[in-house]
Amino acid sequence: MNMPTLSDQEFKQFQAMIYDIAGISMSPAKKPLISGRLVKRVKHHGLASFGDYFRVLMKEDSRAELQVAVDLLTTNETYFFRESKHFDFMRNYILPQHTHGKPFRVWSAASSSGQEPYSIAMTLADGLGDKPWEIVASDISTRVLEKARSGHYPMEQAEDIPKHYLSSYCLKGVGSQDGTFLIERSMRSRVNFMQVNLNQALPKLGEFDLIFLRNVMIYFDTETKRQVVRRIMELLKPGGYLLIGHSESLNGVVDELQSVMPSVYRKP
Question: What whole-number distance in Å separates Cα of residue 134 and Cα of residue 204?
């Protein structure tokens, strides 16, 4: 069977679809990415073209396949303790301010395959000792959430984890699991993974002391950014912190948050 090619017209259909569902703006430069990630599904269904696959996705009874397509188009690379200054700021500055007895609540709003929320969990376990804490970790992709819940990673990803965290909170694979490591059960059980689409009305998640919204706004246009940040701000406690990616900015997006340092904002 010949490899189907993605026409400009078909690209525009998928481009509009992922924008409508997830608020993600894909430039024409992303055409090879869409083609490369979806071609296996076109072949899986024995279809002749990307247009045929798009028509399959638009059918009422295709919710499961639509989720597969969304998973394939929204999955992003991530790693443990990415942008490590945020974790230093959290440990050295935010956590010492938390003196009341209520659980310290954190939301990892684009958690991908789990490296960010587990990095947060290790930092909280270390920094808060016996004080209670909770983490909600969400993503639009059910596939990465499944991987995240397992807490099982190739050993090369352990290089980014501080040594004392690695020995305290991770287990080295042996036998058939050689070359991998597992986040310890005590850490995994403290992270509540759930599917959330930031581009829609948010579920009732409660209020948070700290929200990580990192390296996801780069895919949104300005209006989508405004809507997403507005929704998220409603769940941030007064005095709470919002962390965004180092390459991102809230300039022209919201005025209500105070800039503490680049990529760190506080709700008055």
Answer: 15
Q: What does pLDDT average to over the chain? A: 94
Question: In terms of Cα–Cα distance, which of 51, 47, 48 is closest to 8?
Answer: 51
Nearest to 2 by CA among 42, 52, 34, 32: 42
Structure tokens at 68: 């597969």
Strand order in the sheet with 264-266: 191-195, 133-139, 104-108, 208-213, 236-244, 264-266, 258-261
Which carries the bigger pLDDT value, residue 65 or residue 74?
65
Q: Respond yes or no: is residue 37 known to be catalytic.
A: yes
Numbers of helices and strands, H then E, in the chain: 11, 10
Joined together, the tokens standing for residue 248 give 């991102």
Q: Where are the beta strands (DSSP E) in the chain?
A: 104-108, 133-139, 152-154, 170-172, 180-183, 191-195, 208-213, 236-244, 258-261, 264-266
Read off the pLDDT of residues 214-264 as tens digits, 9 standing for 90 and up.
Answer: 988 888 999 999 999 999 999 999 999 999 999 898 988 999 999 999 999
| C-alpha angle 183-189-192 in degrees, rounded to nearest 5 | 110
Asked whether residue 1 carries a pLDDT value surpassing 70, the answer given is no
- Which structure tokens are listed for 217? 């706004």
Identify the three-state secondary structure at position 186: helix
Name the active-site residue from 82, 105, 139, 214: 139
- List the domains of the chain with CATH numbers: 8-74 (1.10.155.10), 85-266 (3.40.50.150)
